[in-house]
Design goal:
9 strands, globular, two-stranded antiparallel ribbon, 2 domains
């Protein structure tokens, strides 16, 4: 399949179609946003992302990336958390059938309208409750599925929901089928660009997260927890999760076992993904840390956004997984190595001191004086 030619053909260039999509989006989804949001530059960017940019990114990058690992023609595909159906619509041009599921009725209503406006016949969008998602998937797909698409969705699920979703999708995959995880924020990265736009925010305990959210520069998010009080800790945790927190390799190891590593056939360092999401400093630092400490995880989980594909039954890829590009920020790497070596030397010196006879003897001699000092301090 010539993806370049086919992708260009499906990019929406008709002005009337774009205007119809924008009108439908504002009519159906404007209540999700604060008044006047779409008159701001950020609002206009968000609207463009929902109407065109995400659809084009899926067409240009994700479709050909997945198409390298399976013949899309004739396949049955399911998208979990389809949202406004940008990626659902992108894949609809290449697969036989694609069904999207989401827990948000407004998103589903717009997804259906998108299919209608764009004359897409082989795509469907279904509303499902958060508690019935996996049961519904099992009921609707008893014959199995060729591809599960998890596009920017796992980070919005609770841990329980996420583990159950991964397990269920894996069980329903046909032999040789693919689980595609893409555009998913990595929980192990320092900066929470996805939600709060603050460093370390996604690492915080729920209550600290709630209180600190007002410092976020993101309109809507920074006032959300002040407007909505959560007396129940479980509900607070779920509310935070729905905004999006992050995903890590732990989720896949818990869901699929240690063999999850053997199922990976694409790791996010392929040309299709790198041309969309280049490698940044934080990713390089995380990769350095993983390599330096010999942490046995796939390098797919060192990317800022997780983009990887798992194949059912652990069929190995025809070619080796691509290696990450060379560390591009040499100065930072040299500084990192220098500081790391200096710290290791200090640890070594401290270890020698703590294990020396002189230090132990000094500690024994000093103990009575420390005890007297504590007693005096206590009495005073």
């Amino acid at each position: 399949m010539n993806f370049v030619t086919d992708i260009d053909k499906y990019i929406i260039k008709n002005k009337q179609t774009i205007e119809s999509l924008e009108k439908a989006f504002l009519k159906i989804l404007s209540s999700k946003y604060v008044d006047g949001f779409f008159e701001t530059e950020i609002g206009k960017t968000d609207l463009d992302a929902n109407i065109s940019n995400r659809y084009i990114n899926a067409l240009k990058h994700v479709v050909p990336w997945v198409g390298k690992h399976i013949n899309l023609s004739g396949t049955k595909m399911i998208e979990i958390g389809c949202g406004t159906a940008s990626s659902t619509a992108a894949f609809s041009h290449f697969v036989d059938q694609i069904n999207g599921y989401d827990i948000d009725e407004q998103y589903i209503n717009f997804a259906k309208k998108r299919f209608e406006i764009c004359d897409i016949k082989n795509a469907h969008a279904s509303l499902v409750s958060e508690t019935d998602l996996c049961r519904t998937l099992q009921e609707h797909n008893k014959g199995g599925v060729d591809i599960f698409l998890l596009y920017a969705v796992l980070e919005h699920q609770t841990v329980e929901e996420r583990l159950e979703t991964i397990k269920t999708c894996w069980e329903l995959l046909r032999p040789g089928g693919l689980m595609v995880v893409t555009d998913t924020p990595n929980l192990l990265i320092y900066n929470d660009v996805h939600t709060s736009q603050l460093p370390f925010m996604h690492f915080l305990p729920d209550l600290t997260y709630e209180l600190y959210s007002k410092k976020s520069p993101r309109d809507g998010f920074n006032s959300h927890f002040a407007r909505n009080k959560f007396d129940d800790k479980i509900e607070l945790g779920k509310a935070i999760t729905r905004w999006g927190r992050g995903v890590s390799y732990h989720d896949f190891e818990l869901s699929l076992g240690a063999k999850y590593k053997d199922y990976i056939v694409a790791n996010g360092f392929e040309e299709e993904i790198l041309s969309w999401l280049g490698v940044g400093l934080e990713e390089e630092l995380l990769r350095m840390y993983v390599m330096k400490h010999h942490i046995d995880i796939p390098l797919a989980f060192t990317r800022f956004h997780l983009n990887f594909i798992l194949r059912k039954d652990g069929q190995t890829p025809e070619t080796e997984l691509p290696a990450p590009p060379d560390f591009s920020i040499i100065a930072d790497r040299e500084e990192y190595d220098k500081l790391s070596d200096a710290l290791a030397e200090k640890d070594r010196e401290l270890g020698l001191i703590l294990n020396s006879k002189r230090w132990r003897l000094g500690n024994i001699i000093a103990w009575p004086y420390r005890s007297i000092k504590r007693m005096i301090k206590k009495d005073s």
